[in-house]
Amino acid sequence: MKFKTMFLLAVFAGASLLSPRPARAEVGVSVSFFYDELSPYGRWESVGRWGDCWIPGNVAAGWQPYTDGQWIYTDYGWTWVSYDRWGGDPYHYGTWVWEDPWGWVWVPGTVWAPAWVTWGYSGSYVGWAPIPPTVSISYGGYSGAAIVVPQSRYVFVPVNRFAGVRVSSVRLPVRENAAIFPHVRKLTSYSVSGGILVNRGPSVATIEQATRTRIPKASISEAKSRPVPMSASGARRGQKISVVSPAPVRAREIAQHRERAGAPPPASAGHKEHATPPPGGQHEAAPKHEASPRHHASPPKHEAIPKHEAAPKHEAAPKHEAAAPKHEAAPPKHEAAPPKHEPPPPRHEAPPPHPEAPPHAAPPHPAPEHRPPPPHKQEPPPPPEGGEPGPPPGS
Hints:
Elements: H1 2-18, H2 31-38, E1 42-47, E2 51-56, E3 69-74, E4 77-82, H3 89-92, E5 95-99, E6 103-107, E7 117-121, E8 125-130, E9 136-138, E10 155-158, H4 177-180, E11 185-187, E12 190-193, E13 196-199, H5 204-211, E14 240-242, H6 247-261, H7 270-274, H8 282-285, H9 287-291, H10 293-303, H11 312-316, H12 326-335
Antiparallel strand pairs: 1-2, 3-4, 5-6, 7-8, 7-11, 8-10, 9-14, 12-13
């Protein structure tokens, strides 16, 4: 009995070892994961119609994606191996797009692929370019019409320098694209194997025939990326899924991630910084001149100066008339102006000047009107030259 029990236990143990283990659930990536991974190497900004995107920093002039690295052939087709210091995820998820004035920006996505490119091939050259963010694929891959982007976005290399060679060392100048582009066959081809996308592109046999060299199959580990089934990104049979995550989903996920991390919201002036505006603060400081009281106070300064209003003083009387008392002379100055146009008074009414007045205080005209006329009549002196009126009556 004891032997039988031990035998049954051994059988059950063997059966448990031979039975398949439960499949481990595949965990996909998220936009917040990319946010943390790429933030040290660039900046995140809202880029026009594409929404939240990542812009690499400290890249060389003329840089563009899929140039600093090499192509290898793996179980998943043509796979890109990046030499960029921020790793390979932006080449296996999402896609790149050129957008003024930011330049090349990466639009995040959560579907893995060996490389997100469309191809161009001739007997002499192989070319590729990032697929647009508007592309969608089905659970079975992509086998529709070739996706064509502007010819300036393509990278071309000689066919015999295509596989296993650093692209930046053999790529043709962009100015030659115009002559090559009309003669290449455009193709975009993705299939699915085991639920994972495969980038077909130019067939290996065609490249081997053109180069007369056998192309060995490399390990996917060389790409520093792990293949992830499409189902991990939410793709389902019979449905299409976008290569990039929808802009509202990205915005919401990044905002929630930043809120949990206690980080401030992205600066609204980030895309201006990329567009090389003047140093921060100059635009804000410009209104300083408009608000400065110095310029507004200038007009009243000229209006308050009495020098220009006192100009009639020289026309009304000679300079020595200013010796009269300031408080008494101010009112008669304005009253004396009208008699200038009236006819002079009768000569027989003008009294003689007073001899007792001091020489320096003697006015050119007789004393004020409040003194009574003398009892006798005397001819007044003739009027002065220049037609000026005589003294006022009763003076």
